[in-house]
Design a protein that fits this description.
With 471 residues, the chain is mainly β. The chain has five helices and 32 strands. The chain has a seven-stranded mixed sheet with strand order 1-15-16-20-29-21-28, sandwiched between helices. The longest helix is centred in the N-terminal third of the chain and has 12 residues. Pfam families: Asp (PF00026).
Length: 471
């Protein structure tokens, strides 16, 4: 999200419906993925300890920042044919936003947690809300922010002169404003003099709760520019600064990792642990795999977003509920079922509801393995399944260990009477491990070692075979 893509040049004609009832955003950019450089000074694996710095997350139904890029990339590949007006189905495509509490200058807010950008930003009092349709002025309430930040009410705010904030998103939303310093407290960790953005001009369709966003990207992808006039900003001229979590582990003694545990309960989003693990049940034994940093580039080649990407050994699925699988490529046991789509790179993204994978080798065969089999709908571009179908055994193998998806997460309700498979075609060669999979694992983002680490979670909270989409 934090981008070198200039906000005021992004195109005011791009329109998107309100996030409370999301529609597929209109996209006029061509996006490509690129491999980013890794650090030459990786640290050893960070020692895992339970931490008290744990944040309870809430969930909001909205176009998550990451899902706009995922769906734009899928649309280019011809896999997305979602039609406006089908709100429930589009909600599945939209993903979720996860909100966390933060205190800034003694004022309390809810902010979106975004793993693909770096900036911390907040909407300010008396900001200008702008229409995405025609650029006209709107009432502040139309942007649907939560409580705005008031710098005049803070004794710790310090402005930064000769800098401005300028950011755009894949769905055409954009924000501009000033840069400043303020005291931040999140998850019990205080960071004094944190640089952040004060948004005073916004083309935005919010969730009605969040006042801004905090980025947790694996590297610095900030959107501060020199000067005070956003119309003069140019791509590639951003000013680098330490984002919030970087300051936590470089200046506040926090271990350089964060852990995400998503809950399938729609009223309880999950937890985000800073510097350690949350105190929740999980199976012993972590699988570790290198983070492969992947960037999203716009037509001009500028980097606008990042994804945490890993190498997947393969995918395990079978109609046999007692199936065993070969996870060792050096020895194949003929009595076990082989993995498919070996050595696939996959994006790990909590902002995407579904698991997207290759249609021929994974999504299609998985849909066919439901009892009764799933049915492809060419109009909407999804596999529908019976809401009371028996799903196949399904798992993702990482570093020699299979992490299975609970059957409760394999069927998502898209309307009062219809359900879809949790595994859908990707398009454009993308493989996305979204919430369908992430609800079943403890995800550790070890930024110091540039590794991702996973542990299986217990099969928790089963009150029904299938859950409502977007939960």
């Amino acid at each position: 999200m934090a981008t070198t893509y200039i906000a005021l040049l992004a195109g005011l004609s791009l329109a998107t419906a309100r996030r409370a009832q999301p529609y597929f955003p209109n996209i006029n950019e061509e996006y490509t993925l690129s491999r980013l450089a890794v650090s030459d000074h990786k640290q050893p694996l960070t020692k895992l300890k339970v931490t008290d710095n744990v944040i309870k997350l809430t969930r909001a139904n909205a176009w998550s920042p990451s899902s706009t890029y995922v769906q734009a990339l899928r649309r280019q590949g011809g896999a997305v044919r979602v039609k406006n007006g089908t709100v429930n189905l589009i909600s599945v495509e939209a993903g979720s936003v996860f909100l966390a509490p933060v205190t800034v200058g003694g004022q309390d807010f809810k902010v979106v947690i975004d793993s693909g950008s770096s900036d911390p930003w907040l909407a300010t009092i008396n900001f200008d809300c702008i229409s995405l349709y025609d650029g006209s002025d709107l009432d502040e309430s139309e942007c649907e922010f939560g409580t705005p930040y008031n710098s005049s009410a803070s004794s710790t705010y310090r402005p930064i002169t000769d800098q401005n904030f300028n950011i755009s998103y894949a769905d055409g939303e954009f924000l501009t404003g000033d840069m400043g310093y303020e005291n931040f407290t999140m998850g019990g960790i205080s960071v004094p003099h944190q640089e952040f953005a004060l948004v005073d001009y916004a083309a935005w369709t919010g969730d009605g709760y969040s006042s801004g966003l905090i980025g947790f990207a694996s590297r610095t992808l900030t959107s501060a520019y020199p000067g005070n006039d956003p119309t003069q900003d140019r791509g590639g001229q951003t000013l680098m600064y330490n984002p919030l979590f970087v300051n936590m582990y470089t200046n506040q003694g926090v271990a350089p990792l964060f852990t995400l545990a998503i809950n399938r309960d729609p009223d309880y989003g999950g937890v985000l642990a800073l510097g350690g693990l949350p105190d929740i049940p999980y199976s012993p034994g972590f699988a570790s795999t290198p983070i492969i940093p992947v960037g999203v580039n716009i037509t001009s080649g500028l980097l606008v977003y990042e994804f945490y990407t890993i190498n997947v050994d393969g995918f395990a699925f079978s109609t046999n509920q007692n199936a065993q699988f070969n996870v060792n490529n050096t020895y194949v046991n003929p009595r076990k079922t082989s993995l498919v789509a070996n050595n696939t790179q996959a994006i790990v993204d909590s902002g995407t509801s579904l698991l997207y994978a290759d249609n021929d080798t994974i999504a299609g065969p998985v849909a066919a393995a439901f009892n009764p089999p799933g049915i492809w709908d060419d109009y909407y571009g999804v596999f529908y399944v019976s809401c009371d179908a028996i799903p196949p055994v399904f798992g993702v193998a990482v570093s020699g260990k299979i992490f299975y998806v609970n059957g409760a997460d394999m069927i998502l309700q898209s309307s009062e009477t219809e359900c879809i498979s949790g595994v859908q075609p990707s398009g454009s060669g993308l493989t996305i491990l979204g919430d369908v999979w992430m609800k079943n694992v403890l995800c550790v983002f070890d930024l110091g070692a540039e590794m991702m680490r996973f542990a299986a979670r217990e099969f928790y909270g089963l009150t029904a075979q299938n859950k409502v989409a977007n939960t």
